[in-house]
Specification:
Layout (H helix, E strand, L loop, with lengths): L2 H5 L2 H17 L2 H13 L1 H18 L2 H28 L4 H4 L19 H14 L3 H20 L5 H22 L3 H7 L5 H4 L3
Helix pairs in contact: 3-8, 4-5, 4-7, 4-8, 5-7, 5-9, 5-10, 7-8, 7-9, 8-9
């Protein structure tokens, strides 16, 4: 992409970005420390959610639900891959490289592209995959996905539109793939007669 195209995004919501980072710069240090910790390691929470959803699904015995639970990690990896391809094609510089503002976290280096947000795509993909396995866990994951996206703007890593695009892309990929993996229910049924039975049943 050209430099002109790479620089243009600041006109979309650069003002909102600098307003948010301005709030962050004035926020209490302990609050920013919590947000920084969440934005750095919060994705691990979604792995815990996936394990919990799989555990509940195998107890329920519904083959299609178990298939979606087992596929959830693959769905998230696929969503990350698609998002990363888009990111490499767009080549949007991080807003902290383009706009003069103080950020909570150090600005990523040049060439570490911004659009769409990988964190947001991964979180949204996990949330949508989980919603199709376990509504309660999925709803909690959806809230966490929104918080993850917001944290990426708060610490200065992304424009709001980077996060919005990541959420939409991750959710779309996950919705499609999870529905496809749900059709693998016959395979789950066959696994009941193999040594892999503990993956699909607690009985």
């Amino acid at each position: 992409m050209t430099h002109a195209l790479a620089a243009a995004p600041y006109a979309i919501d650069g003002g909102l970005y600098t307003w948010v980072t301005g709030l962050a710069a004035r926020a209490p240090g302990p609050w920013n420390a919590v947000v920084s910790l969440w934005t750095d390691v919060g994705l691990a929470v979604f792995a815990v959610f996936m394990v919990a959803a799989w555990w509940r699904a195998r107890s329920g015995g519904e083959a299609d639900r178990i298939a979606r639970a087992l596929a959830a990690p693959l769905v998230v990896v696929a969503a990350y891959g698609v998002n990363d391809v888009v990111k490499s094609l767009v080549d949007e510089q991080r807003p902290c490289q383009v706009l003069h503002t103080v950020t909570v976290q150090a600005c990523p280096s040049l060439g570490d592209w911004s659009f769409p947000s990988n964190h947001a795509a991964i979180a949204a993909a996990a949330a949508v995959a989980l919603l199709q396995v376990d509504r309660r866990i999925g709803a909690l994951a959806a809230v966490c996905a929104l918080l993850m996206g917001a944290s990426r703007v708060w610490v200065g890593a992304h424009y709001p539109h980077d996060v919005a695009a990541g959420l939409v892309l991750g959710a779309a990929v996950a919705w499609l793939l999870t529905r496809l993996f749900g059709r693998a229910a016959p395979l789950v049924t066959r696994l009941h007669t193999t040594r892999l039975r503990p993956l699909v049943s607690d009985r």
